[in-house]
């Protein structure tokens, strides 16, 4: 048996009885058959139909032609599929016979030659995927949803093949470079395809397509063909890649459509044209004539350019992520065309690296571009003809010979430029190329360039529908995008798997699978039906849960009523007559019970939230001073009993014999300080409340209080201060940050003053922190708080609405901060020096304000005056204050301002600065016994009308001063202990002058 190669079907006119080319395709050969014993000869043709191969007998001969060679001409039947021929020879047992065939050929009409173009109807022998009966019409559900495009298949007009909704083409561009925006705008005009052509460097000619809707899409990519060689014969086809993607609406895809490689200049007898190529040259570098001239002539322009690949990718962080690549065909070379299939665009080959192909020998054709450029040095003469990698722009290579119209150039998409051999095709892995004199060294038995290699990412594709087919497409590259549709009998969606959408398949959503019929969707893990007992159990559970919720609501309501009654009862019973043992047997949530509205950050705090410190881990060293509740000690704290390293701490104590109010205030102060976590607020460490005396443990700040620090740092005529104006501004910024933190958490301090600010150190790198939250013990998380009852009030740091109406808001702290800023700029002077509290109240309500300290910069005093605005809503918040302080810190005039010079040592009692009120001629005299705090006399009953009046300060300041008393404890004390007799006042002031400590 002798079998031929596989042929593509002949033109349709061969089977058309009305055409003059009917039965024009014939098989021709000479047969020699002679013997004394009979022998048989049979010729068959086998069609490769989709479901089966069908063989047809064409000739059967038992003749004896003796010594004569007889010509046989056999008409090929109406072949519509690929086919091959096979010859069978049968002989008898005896050996006396002779049978042979010679000079076998097919008529040119079998390949579409010698037939006019109008009769061929765009038939191309080298395109095997058109004009086949099995190329069915689209599925009816797809045909009803599509419109007809011209496409790039050039189909027979007798068939109504329908294309998908979106078709991406080369926009009529040819050659090495991709299309521009104007070309694609004209090409897609009147279609549904919308793209944006990128013209950036390295991305020029790439089209960006955006998914119009969410859903499944079938993408069919076609690589471009390679260019023909100088013989003008042969076929180089691009590959086809199919992939299904699940896209979101608005998702972008980047597509570089491959362009066909340019043909070489035709060199054929009888072919007359104005060639644009430099055709021939002498291999010895000199002109020769005659036979030698023919022998040593080299044809330089024999190879066509490689076809470009079609790339589809996404971008992530400016990096290309490949999805699918349909490779281009290699360019055809000089000489006779032999179809080994190597020149076609190839399918996936995982053994090939995703780089540009290789080039062998001098004057080699250009290799096809890959996804990346291969690592290594490129010869100087190789670089121009080599197709560029996609990541480098994907431009086609230039032919090695000169041409005015781009003959032999590689196509856009990485096609290699032609030389004597054809250029390599572009692809995920570029096709190799070689020189004609080195082919035997590299097992290249043809002058054709190697086709590129395709790619698809199976992880991105939906299902197992991804496919790559080599040698599928003729012509320019392209992309068909077919959206999935409901229909085709599918439960969910119907996908098209071929360009004509005749082959369809159903698909199911995630967690579902196709049923045996290929259309029904079945859930992967169907839920089991609930048993009857489960239903009854569920109903019973719901009923029980409803009853439980009702009981809980009832209990919570009763608890609410009890707490409300307890609050009312405590208001009635709170006073000096309440027994201390009643307080000590209170529950752990006593703080919440005392003040149920007390929250911080939306969370209610109780004693259980305080960190308890074992007493054996705390060691007291020495007394630091007298606080509002008791002695304040320096101590050392070990976090664990076995630790050898101790932390220095400050310990505030509450004596055992304390009043109910003192113990409640002490506990409330601990709870308040435990909520803060800010670098400019004294850090709370823990409490020791297991027995008396009770302790509050805080961080120890070695720098002391801000007021004494400023007074000690005052410059003298004989000695300059270690501080500068910059240090004072930074101190103010530190305090402002702490106040801003309190304001953001809707907390009111009520006693912002220099005596209540502590320093980490007196040297450089100091940090100022706000301390002493005794006045904050009953400030609720609300818009304002109206103070009632007895409380020691720092009149000189309070705005009018505070000491007149008892209303405290965050704007109260803003006023106090302005006074603190005055203290800082005056280096620790007492505000309103020489004025009694009642005089200060009269002065402030009448519009009087502190004058700027000596050498105080104007912007700093401007901040003070804004803080002292009579209308609370007009005062700035601490965010604004910090911004203005930041501006001052950047102002050279402020930062370079001098400090005031003091000619006397700092006083340990009261300063004697001059205060000039506005619109008054009275002078404030020095009152050495005057204090910073004013407390109502607990023996005097003041009517509600007098306290609540804001129109007359005289109602709050009667002529007899025995209705108001001054504190006889330390100037910064908050004690609510009974006041000392006047005879003990001087003794207590001297003790305060000896030891100063700010809580």
Structure description:
The chain is α+β, with helices and mostly antiparallel strands and 999 residues long. Among the domains are: 2-120, Jelly Rolls (Sandwich); 164-262 and 299-484, no CATH class; 532-573; 725-770 and 787-896 and 907-994, Transferase(Phosphotransferase) domain 1 (Transferase(Phosphotransferase), domain 1, Orthogonal Bundle). It contains 18 helices and 40 strands. The strands form 13 sheets. A 7-stranded mixed β-sheet has the order 9-10-13-16-17-21-18. Strands 8-23-11-12-22 form a 5-stranded antiparallel β-sheet, with no helix packed on it. A 5-stranded antiparallel β-sheet has the order 30-31-32-34-33, covered by helices on one side. Helix 10 (725-744) packs antiparallel against helix 12 (810-825). The longest helix has 42 residues, at 532-573. Mean pLDDT is 78; it is low at 146-163, 280-285, 573-599, 777-790 and 906-999.
Observed structural traits:
transmembrane; 999 residues; single chain; seven-stranded mixed beta sheet; signal; alpha+beta; transmembrane receptor protein tyrosine kinase activity; elongated; Jelly Rolls
Regarding quaternary structure, what we see is single chain
Q: What's the tally of helices? A: 18
Order the strands across the largest sheet as they lie in space: 9-10-13-16-17-21-18
Report the average pLDDT across residues. 78
Number of separate strands: 40
Rg over alpha carbons? 50 Å
The helix content, as a percent range, equals 10-25%
Task: Describe the sheet with the most strands.
Answer: 7 strands, mixed
Q: Structural class of the helix and strand makeup?
A: alpha+beta
Amino-to-carboxy terminus distance: 113 Å
Low-confidence stretches: 146-163, 280-285, 573-599, 777-790, 906-999
Portion in strands: 15-25%
Global geometry: elongated
EC number: 2.7.10.1
Organism: Oryctes borbonicus
Pfam family, one: PK_Tyr_Ser-Thr
Catalytic activity: L-tyrosyl-[protein] + ATP = O-phospho-L-tyrosyl-[protein] + ADP + H(+)
